[in-house]
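Worked example 2:
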Amino acid sequence: MSATTLCPQADLTCDACIETFLDEHPGAEVWEHTYHWCDCPYIATVDERDICIGCGDRRNLAGEHRHLMAGRAA
């Protein structure tokens, strides 16, 4: 991860972060998406809820869309 990322797990690689997440949530379905507002590209479905692997927040499609559009405008 780069020093400019907003990722709360910046000291871990994405693979290590996913592995840590799956250790805590065995059986969760992990998938890649555009980017959560913390810049994490991975979401997991846990107990029928989609949450960000990096920060643990529930997925918010409107917030992610605003974040993506703000990045394109910059």
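Residues 42 and 49 are 14 Å apart (CA to CA). The chain has a mean pLDDT of 81.
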